[in-house]
């Protein structure tokens, strides 16, 4: 996960050329000109997308565009099931809230931060913090030539645990429209069963377009906006690929933890993954049942289910892979080597840092278990209940009529926010009935939010009775209750409301745990800074890359098969033959659309087929990715687009903690399958005509 701005300094460009790259460093990243970097950006809030035409066309994953597809879907227009193909630009759908972000500029500010620490303007601990970095970024922006330009947002971040700092100037476009999406039977083929698995046959793509004002600058949606004339777009290769070919991915990996100690990995397994697996599993079971029974609820909860299940299964796979791949043993060996290095360097900070980290983890581990459980149940899974009534209560106590009027209007907006088109009160009630008692099984009584004492004392531990009363009678539970309260709002009614008592208790518990962890994590951050600096020194002259933090990175490798265990070998690509082999009309995850089946059976693949007449779907590469890389472009040695990254393989889900080059694979969608679906199934030849195709 190499930083673009350090490729020359770290000689990573030389290593890429040895692997087969035919481009120069400035073709990839040019701080003074246009490069491949300018065709890649952040799609939405957590994925990568790439520009594939001179007129702002974006390619990303189907699962990255899923929220937008669901947003536009209804029982009458079920784009999740049927797909969406804009036949012309006037049919492209405005998608409120969706943004696309380019990286305009990157600058090293390490010396500036260190000077502030040396001058005692800030402490070393403060240099890591959001408030300081946000203030610094804004100050630098105010002095920059980018000040006042549309869409520019600065962001300062620490790297290598605070041993280096960079500021990123982002250019954000906020008129992004939906152009094309295959039906979920293609875009999510294999569903939860195939997630993180190989062989894969998922057409995981969707297409959007950036619109801009008359000057090509970012602007909010307007009918007069026009497609962005992009300064860089990716050429698309139809030349195909073979095992051993060079492959690189540019994108925005979200988060890795490659520098953890053994104790920290155990904490990740036991305090984060274990409770997440148990809680999400219970919620997903409820959602699956209600979604299968109703198309309306299926559409409402499609995105929530997908988002929750993805890292539920990831957590299961990570814990398994940590054991199977002996990651703990590998990290223990690293600690032994580091101890010897520290003694040789006669560096007392290095000598004691691992034991100091371990002592901190002994304190944070039980707190993180509580914190994960609290967030997963009461902030991620159960949606009903908010704290909005507390501000109205303050106005009522003050008897401030004008403020009461303002707070009542805010309350109406809050009610609409709770009861939005993607919320079903009865579904949420079922989730609450599953999770309230589960949380009690997982967390001792003295550590639970205070609402549990109310349940024990007033409801004799009957969770169903408490939940039914809260979901039936609370002010925000339904329109009738809400309207009756608004007609005559009183402090007494607010104080008696169970949802308010519940909300206050969960926020109190959250604040208490967050405060305890914040204090411990300040010291832990400084220890990590020391440990990572030492590990990187120990590796020299071999360069090191920093952990992922959703900033632009480049990973290089090769197209490659793998053998995960004795007697098992996986080919490096799949074809549409596998789609028909997996077909099961009785299982929603493996339904094959009639039109696609007809095309496959007739081998009607056009110019996108392999020389033997088969149609490629997905392929494997040795690239290093994680969440956030979804949708990233996979590029060949000439910087041409050959695929779209969308997943990792099951056997190496410990890769966020320890990258294993022999086992870790990136699962990519072959660009030829994307074009085949667009052309033959979506009748979107007009989109293909926009693209630069290399035969």
TrEMBL record:
Keyword Heme: no
Biological process, per Gene Ontology: peptide catabolic process; proteolysis
Keyword Cell inner membrane: no
Keywords: Aminopeptidase, Hydrolase, Protease, Serine protease, Signal
EC number of this enzyme: 3.4.14.-
GO molecular function: dipeptidyl-peptidase activity; serine-type aminopeptidase activity
One Pfam family, short name: Peptidase_S46
Function comment: Catalyzes the removal of dipeptides from the N-terminus of oligopeptides.
Record family assignment: Belongs to the peptidase S46 family.
Protein's name according to its UniProt entry: Dipeptidyl-peptidase
């Amino acid at each position: 996960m190499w930083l673009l701005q350090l490729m020359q300094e770290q000689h990573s460009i030389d290593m890429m050329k040895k692997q087969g790259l035919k481009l120069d460093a400035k073709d990839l990243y040019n701080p003074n000109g246009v490069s491949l970097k300018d065709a890649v950006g952040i799609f939405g809030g957590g994925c990568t997308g790439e520009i594939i035409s001179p007129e702002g066309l974006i390619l990303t994953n189907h699962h990255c565009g899923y929220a937008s597809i669901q947003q536009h879907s209804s029982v009458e227009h079920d784009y999740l099931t049927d797909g969406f193909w804009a036949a012309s630009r006037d049919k492209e759908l405005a998608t409120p809230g969706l943004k696309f972000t380019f990286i305009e500029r990157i600058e090293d500010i390490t010396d500036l931060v260190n000077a502030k620490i040396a001058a005692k303007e800030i402490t070393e601990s403060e240099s890591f913090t959001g408030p300081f970095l946000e203030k610094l970024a804004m100050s630098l922006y105010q002095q920059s030539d980018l000040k006042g330009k549309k869409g520019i947002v600065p962001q300062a971040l620490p790297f290598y645990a605070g041993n280096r700092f960079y500021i990123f100037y982002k250019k954000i476009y906020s008129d992004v429209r939906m152009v094309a999406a295959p039906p979920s039977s293609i875009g999510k083929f294999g569903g939860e069963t195939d997630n993180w698995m190989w062989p894969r046959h998922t057409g995981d793509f969707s297409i959007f377009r950036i619109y801009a004002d008359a000057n090509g600058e970012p602007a909010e949606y307007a009918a007069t906006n026009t497609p962005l004339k992009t300064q860089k777009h990716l050429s698309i290769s139809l030349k195909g690929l073979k095992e051993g070919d060079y492959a690189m991915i540019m994108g925005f990996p979200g988060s890795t933890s490659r520098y953890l100690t053994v104790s920290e990995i155990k904490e990740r397994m036991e305090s984060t993954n274990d409770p997440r697996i148990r809680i999400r599993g219970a919620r997903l079971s409820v959602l699956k049942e209600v979604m299968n029974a109703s198309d309306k609820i299926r559409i409402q909860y499609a995105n929530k289910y997908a988002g929750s299940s993805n890292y539920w299964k990831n957590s299961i796979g990570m814990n398994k892979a940590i054991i199977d791949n002996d990651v703990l043993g590998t990290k223990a060996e690293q600690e032994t080597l580091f101890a010897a290095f520290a003694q040789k360097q006669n560096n007392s900070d290095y000598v004691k840092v691992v034991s100091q980290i371990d002592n901190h983890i002994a304190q944070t581990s039980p707190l993180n278990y509580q914190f994960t459980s609290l967030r997963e149940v009461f902030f991620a899974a159960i949606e009903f209940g908010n704290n909005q009534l507390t501000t109205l209560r303050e106005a009522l106590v003050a008897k401030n009529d004008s403020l009461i009027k303002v707070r009542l209007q805010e309350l109406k907006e809050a009610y609409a926010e709770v009861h939005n088109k993607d919320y079903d009160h009865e579904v949420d009630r079922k989730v609450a009935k599953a999770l309230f008692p589960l949380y009690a099984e997982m967390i001792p009584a003295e550590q639970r939010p205070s609402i549990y004492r109310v349940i024990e004392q007033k409801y004799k531990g009957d969770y169903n009775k408490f939940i039914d009363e809260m979901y039936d009678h609370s002010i925000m539970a339904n329109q009738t209750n809400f309207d009756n309260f608004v007609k005559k709002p009183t402090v007494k009614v607010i104080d008696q409301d169970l949802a308010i008592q519940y909300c206050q208790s969960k926020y109190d518990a959250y604040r208490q745990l967050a405060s305890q962890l914040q204090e411990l994590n300040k010291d832990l951050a400084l220890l990590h800074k020391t440990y990572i600096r030492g590990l990187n020194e120990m590796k020299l002259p071999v360069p090191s890359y920093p952990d992922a933090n959703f900033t632009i990175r480049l990973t290089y490798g090769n197209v490659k098969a793998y053998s995960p265990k004795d007697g098992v070998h996986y080919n490096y690509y799949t074809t549409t033959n596998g789609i028909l082999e997996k077909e099961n009309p009785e299982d929603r995850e493996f339904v094959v659309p009639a039109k696609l089946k007809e095309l496959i059976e007739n081998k009607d693949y056009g110019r996108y087929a392999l020389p033997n007449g088969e149609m490629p779907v997905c392929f494997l590469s040795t690239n290093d990715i994680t969440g956030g890389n979804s949708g990233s472009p996979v590029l060949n040695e000439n910087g041409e687009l050959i695929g779209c990254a969308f997943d990792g393989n099951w056997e190496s889900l410990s890769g966020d903690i320890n990258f294993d080059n022999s086992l870790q694979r990136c699962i990519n969608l072959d660009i030829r399958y994307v074009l085949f679906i667009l052309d033959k199934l979506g009748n979107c030849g007009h989109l293909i005509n926009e693209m630069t195709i290399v035969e």
